[in-house]
Each structure stands twice: as structure tokens, then as C-alpha cells.
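Input record, target 12 of the design panel.
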């Protein structure tokens, strides 16, 4: 199975709760799970999406981990799956899915590390 990973740093213009809501609204996919945790002063939100890509006839997965510790925000984006057949070609579905999240985060104060 192929995957794509993108690491980003935020500028604290919005809280990760706001960022999570924006992602859920703007990502054109099914939200599978949202988990929130607070450890001491660290806020963590894990989002999991899935989307069917017709070009390869299978589902791709998008996982976004948002963390906020004081004035430090990070986003870890992983697009995976989307492969079909014996060679498991995704035809770029996992990359397109990860890029979708990266564009949303970039519009909201995040930059690639």
C-alpha cells in the first residue's frame, strides 16, 4: 500500500479546534472518526477521513493529527490506500487526498516544515 506524508507548522492564527472544524467542512470526504485529547497543556485532535476515487475504483484514507502546545501548532497529514489490483496502484489518489488537506491548512496559517 502506498502512502504520502506531509508535516506542517501553524502560526496560531486559529486554534486547532477551529482548524479541525474547517477541515471537516472543506474536505470533500466522509469523516470516519474525530478524537480529541488534552495532556497537560497539549491539545491533540485526530481526524480520519475516507473517500472513494472512481479513477482507480477504491477508497483512500486521510489521517490528520493536529497538535497545539502553547504557541506551537503542528499538523501531520497521511494519505494512504487508494490502490487496486495485484500491483496496488493508487493512480495518485492518496497524494491528491493529502494535498487537499494541505491546501486547506495552508489557507489557514500552516506551512510545510
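The sequence produced for target 12 reads:
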Amino acid at each position: 500500500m502506498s502512502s504520502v506524508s506531509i508535516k506542517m507548522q501553524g502560526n496560531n492564527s486559529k486554534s486547532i479546534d477551529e482548524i479541525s472544524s474547517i477541515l471537516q467542512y472543506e474536505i470533500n470526504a466522509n469523516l470516519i472518526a474525530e478524537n480529541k485529547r488534552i495532556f497537560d497543556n497539549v491539545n491533540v485532535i485526530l481526524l480520519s477521513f475516507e473517500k472513494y476515487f472512481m479513477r482507480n475504483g477504491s477508497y483512500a484514507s486521510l489521517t490528520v493529527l493536529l497538535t497545539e502546545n502553547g504557541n506551537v501548532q503542528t499538523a501531520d497529514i497521511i494519505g494512504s490506500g487508494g490502490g487496486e489490483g495485484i500491483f496496488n496502484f493508487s493512480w495518485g489518489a492518496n497524494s491528491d487526498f493529502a494535498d487537499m488537506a494541505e491546501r486547506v491548512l495552508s489557507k489557514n496559517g500552516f506551512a510545510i516544515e
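The helical segments are 16-26, 93-107.
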